[in-house]
Structure formats: C-alpha cells, structure tokens
C-alpha cells in the first residue's frame, strides 16, 4: 500500500470530525438562543399576569364575552353577585402554607338562574365538612371579587389520582363533573371558575386569596448551560488542535 493510500483516510477523518463539531456547536448555540427567547416570553407573561391581578375588577359578563371569543381570561379580576348554594359545595384536595386540607368550590346562583363555581378558599382537613365551619356558610345575596380561572380541558397528568366523587374529594378541577355531581345542568353553568380574593370570611374560614401563580422561570439558567457547553466544546477542540500542531512540529 502506498503512502498516498495511507494519507487519504487520515485527511478524511479530521474533516469528518470538524463537521461533527460544527453541527454540535450549532445545536448548542441554537438551544441557548431558544432559551433566551423563552426567557423574554416568560417575563412578558409574568408581567401580564401581574398587571391583570393589579387591575380593577370587571363585571362577570365581560369575562364571559372574552371567553366566548377564545380570549385569555386567566387571572383577570372579576366581580359577580349571587347566592351561594352551600349544600352543594365541592372539595378540592390541596395544601396551603404547609397545611393539608381542601379548597371549597361553592356554586354561586346568579340572578338569571345560571351558576358560577367559586373557589372560596382553603379549609384545614378537619374542617372539610360544612358543619365544622357554619359561620362561614354565607347566606342571602353575596358579591364576590376574585380571579377568573379557565376550565381544564382534561386531567392534567396520568399521575394525578382520579376524582372521588362519592367522597366529594377532587384531585383535579373537573368543572363538568363538579356540576353533574350536584345535579346542575352543564348548559347553565358558567364555563370557568372564579378564585375568591382574600376578603375575610366569618370565623376565618374558608381562607380566601389562595390563587398561586406557579410559573417557574429557569430559562436564563438553561441558556447559560447551553452556551457554556458550546464554549467548553470550542475550548476542547482548540486545545486538541493546538496539541496536534505542537506534536507535528516536534516530529
């Protein structure tokens, strides 16, 4: 075999390696740039949510109109007036400030006969049953101010337990089942929830204002990670080429 035949594979190998390095570098930089774009998007979203929560409340009809046209109603401040149907409240398993208990979802009967499910707030586990907090069972006409919350399209994840309708324990907020379980006509139920604000209830229960905006914003960290890996790759390749050049010069 001639020297030319030996040299050909050696020349092809560095070229192939260089192509792989460029592809890997392009992927790492693209991932870092994508995370930066996600960072700007997430910061804008959080700012928008903060602005909605700080805004003055609007009538329920305005949120209904927005929802009907596909608008984003999430976390918009709203006010509604009606009568709580206390004997039909539904209980959503939750924790609040380290304590286990339930969010109390109570149907609010509006003047036109329709129903709005209101998350009135948190009660400790031992106060699940209404007779353990009778003072907080508001009667007559009430006006509630809170944040609109969209109806979930389905079970959030397979790891979430199925709702136990018989025991009135919900592990995910299935509005249709909540309505059906107390005999309400879905067509007469407002297609979203309202989380009541922190206005105190008699005897302190339920505890309102429990809405949690849990939107992690780790995109900057991820961007640094991808860009850092790209920088490391460049350094490793540069050192490898430098050592090969030094070795060749010494021969």
UniProtKB/TrEMBL annotation:
Transmembrane segments: 12-34, 224-242
Residues in the signal sequence: none
Keyword field contains Membrane: yes
Record keyword Disulfide bond present: no
Pfam family, one: SURF1
Main location: membrane
InterPro entries: Surf1/Shy1, Surf1/Surf4
Keywords noted in UniProt: Cell membrane, Membrane, Transmembrane, Transmembrane helix
Any GO CC annotation of this UniProt entry: plasma membrane
Superkingdom as given in the UniProt entry: Bacteria
Topology with respect to the bilayer: Multi-pass membrane protein
Subcellular location: Cell membrane; Membrane
CDD domains listed in its UniProt record: SURF1 (cd06662)
Family: Belongs to the SURF1 family.
Name of the protein: SURF1-like protein
Source organism per UniProt: Rhizobium fabae
Phylogenetic placement of the source organism: Bacteria, Pseudomonadati, Pseudomonadota, Alphaproteobacteria, Hyphomicrobiales
């Amino acid at each position: 075999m001639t020297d030319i035949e030996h040299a050909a594979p050696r020349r092809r190998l560095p070229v192939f390696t260089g192509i792989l390095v460029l592809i890997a570098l392009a992927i790492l930089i693209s991932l870092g740039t994508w995370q930066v774009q996600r960072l700007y998007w997430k910061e804008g979203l959080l700012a928008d949510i903060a602005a909605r929560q700080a805004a003055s409340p609007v009538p329920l009809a305005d949120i209904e109109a927005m929802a009907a046209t596909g608008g984003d109603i999430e976390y918009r401040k709203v006010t509604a007036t009606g009568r709580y149907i206390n004997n039909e409240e539904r209980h959503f398993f939750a924790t609040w400030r380290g304590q286990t208990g339930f969010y109390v979802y109570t149907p609010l009967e509006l003047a036109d006969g329709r129903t709005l499910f209101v998350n009135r707030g948190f009660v400790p586990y031992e106060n699940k049953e209404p007779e353990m907090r009778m003072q907080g069972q508001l009667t007559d006409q009430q006006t509630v101010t809170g944040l609109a919350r969209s109806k979930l399209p389905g079970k959030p994840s397979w790891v979430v337990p199925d709702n136990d309708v018989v025991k009135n324990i919900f592990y995910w907020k299935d509005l249709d089942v909540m309505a059906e379980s107390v005999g309400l006509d879905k067509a007469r139920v407002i297609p979203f929830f309202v989380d009541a604000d922190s206005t105190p209830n008699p005897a302190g229960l339920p505890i309102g204002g429990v809405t949690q905006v849990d939107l992690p914003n780790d995109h900057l960290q991820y961007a640094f990670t991808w860009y850092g890996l790209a920088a490391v790759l460049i350094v490793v390749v540069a050192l490898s080429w430098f050592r090969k050049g030094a070795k060749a010069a010494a021969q």
